[in-house]
Amino acid sequence: MSTRERITAVCRQEYFIKAVFAFPMARVEVKWGALNNADCVTDETLNEYITKNTNGSRLTAQEIDRVSRTFQGLSKMDGEPQRQS
Hints:
Elements: H1 3-11, E1 19-23, E2 38-42, H2 46-52, H3 61-79
Parallel strand pairs: 1-2
Helix pairs in contact: 1-3
């Protein structure tokens, strides 16, 4: 399943997910919008990117907590070896 499908299944709500690559130790020259489904930012601009680019919608504290816990749970599941039936 894709990450979005997993989050939707667990949270029972659809969220828009966009990839953001933050480069804390390097400078990468990428034309804004050149990567259709991802944005590249520096560590200095990451906070502003997150807080300013909301497209008119913001998650509540409860939604942030729920999605965060879901990501944590999914990362643990992905790290477990697959059982053979």
